[in-house]
Amino acid sequence: MADTEGHSRIGEKVLAMTLALLLVLPPEIYGGGAVAARIPQSPAEREPIALPADSTVMVDAEIDVAVTPDNDSIPPTEVRADDYAFDENGKIPFNPSPTRAVWLSALCPGLGQIYNRRYWKLPIVVGGFMGLGYATSWNANQYKDYMQAYRDIMDSDPGTNSYMNFFPPTVSESDLDRSWLERTFKSRKDYFRRNRDLCIICLVALYLVCMVDAYVDASMAHFDVSPDLSLDIAPAIIVNDRFPSIKRSALGLQWSLTF
Description:
Helices cover 45% and strands 9% of the residues. It is built from six helices and four strands.
């Protein structure tokens, strides 16, 4: 019994030492058939592992499945890589909506240009509206003053003489020709009224131009404009179609411009 127990203990020690050697020594030394790998610690060590041809690799993967109320499994929607056009930085380029650009420009002139990322157009839009607004206000005030002066000239009330405010205090009303005053103030009020109306029309036109510009700019945001132009020239036979009685053809050149 003692010999048997001694042999069993010796066998256990030998087995433990053998397992310890197998765990410590690399597989190239003892020629193990199993593939041993460790987690790489640096990017330089992250290289693909060469596996034997007859080896099998099991990969665990999670599959997203959409479940309906009837517990029916529906495969997920397939997304292809070519559905999106990525730029050189790997980002999806900005694709403005023409409808949204028009509505933003209609809400406030200049918002459509900001939405289209055409910031250099914003000072032009703001400057145009500010200039036309000032011109409209100035011509409207001038028209109001000349209109009131013309009314005072045409009435028979001597107390209403606002037209004398346009002359220096040293000028007497009796020294002025009344018919000349009527013609002058009438032409001046018509002139400033015409300028006021033109400024208002230009404001409306600028408002519409901003909307059209925002729509066209958004529609042609990704229009392919190539800087390379090609000109193809080839000989051609020109048939005379203008004069059917003269059946003659001529040899000429045919060219086409590609851009």
